[in-house]
Amino acid sequence: MDDEQQSDNADEECEDDQLEEEVATVNTKTPSSAQKYKQRVLLIASRGITYRYRHLMNEMHTLLPHSKKDAKLDSKSHLEDLNELAELNNCNNCLYFEVRKHQDMYLWMSKTPNGPSVKFMVRNVHTMDELKMTGNCLKGSRPVLSFDKTFDLEPHLQLLKEMFTQTFAVPRTSRKIKPFIDHIMSFSILDNKIWLRNFQIIEKIPEKGLSKEPEISLVEIGPRCVLDIIRIFDGSFGGSTLYENTLFVSPNELRRNIKAEINAKHQGKAIAQEEREKKKLHNLPAPDPMADVFI
């Protein structure tokens, strides 16, 4: 009997040792597997950026604790240099704010160094200072990404959804994050454009004695902007075209159409004025032959 009890105790000790080894291996593998998912975003602007777009970039940097901001890029023709800058800053995503004519801003979102990349036209930009919304969130907190169901209908929108997720979703392994989720970044599609919004999550605790769940509401924080898709490329900041928006109208063409309408309006007024003058001359009374009789 003593031998049987000793053998049972030995078997139990062996099983306990195996369990401890398995738990130890799981604990050692978990952080290494979690650290494999690394996403860092490089924020960089072109030379000549205006104050409004600079404030938008700074607010994006505040909302993305896994981002890093670099100096301005001097050249607008050699965008391939951004891949080297991203590699030097240990970033695998890049948001490039390109401003042309001090009024038009284009946003490049790229997966460096191999792509893909997408070029947006940014419209209707409103920063937090302009909106002055009552919403607020903790600096460094992780957002919840909310996508419209339209993103799952077409292939290019599915690609954009994945790129937005890898760029704006803050990894839990980031060093600068806070262990809180208190705001939502919303991506909605309307009129073939992507509307970006940022909301605070507010939980209202019910009164004592009530067994209801806390009421959840959303309050907008800002910033807000509209992204108009121009083209999706196979590579990083270039390459073959995967998708092209045929409905996109460049701001230069819009301004040209507005000037043409104004010129056409002025030309119409000038032509109408000439016609009125001709009509006045045509309707002048004929000379009276009896006008000089009594002179």
Automatic annotation (TrEMBL):
<protein>
    <recommendedName>
        <fullName>Brix domain-containing protein</fullName>
    </recommendedName>
</protein>
<dbReference type="Pfam" id="PF04427">
    <property type="entry name" value="Brix"/>
</dbReference>
<comment type="function">
    <text>Required for biogenesis of the 60S ribosomal subunit.</text>
</comment>
<dbReference type="GO" id="GO:0006364">
    <property type="term" value="P:rRNA processing"/>
</dbReference>
<feature type="compositionally biased region" description="Acidic residues">
    <location>
        <begin position="1"/>
        <end position="23"/>
    </location>
</feature>
<dbReference type="GO" id="GO:0000027">
    <property type="term" value="P:ribosomal large subunit assembly"/>
</dbReference>
<dbReference type="GO" id="GO:0005730">
    <property type="term" value="C:nucleolus"/>
</dbReference>
<dbReference type="GO" id="GO:0019843">
    <property type="term" value="F:rRNA binding"/>
</dbReference>
<feature type="region of interest" description="Disordered">
    <location>
        <begin position="1"/>
        <end position="32"/>
    </location>
</feature>
<feature type="domain" description="Brix">
    <location>
        <begin position="39"/>
        <end position="238"/>
    </location>
</feature>
<dbReference type="GO" id="GO:0003723">
    <property type="term" value="F:RNA binding"/>
</dbReference>
<keyword id="KW-0539">Nucleus</keyword>
<dbReference type="InterPro" id="IPR007109">
    <property type="entry name" value="Brix"/>
</dbReference>
<keyword id="KW-0690">Ribosome biogenesis</keyword>
<comment type="similarity">
    <text>Belongs to the BRX1 family.</text>
</comment>
<dbReference type="InterPro" id="IPR026532">
    <property type="entry name" value="BRX1"/>
</dbReference>
